Amino acid sequence: MLEDTLHKHVVQWLEIALPDNSVYHHSPNEGIRHIAFRKKLKAMGMVSGWPDLELFIPKEGWRNSIEKAGVFIELKAKKGRMSENQKAIQRHLRMTGEHIETCYSLEQVKLWLNSLIKLKNNPRMQIIERMCP
Question: Does 98 score more than 80 pLDDT?
Answer without folding.
Answer: yes
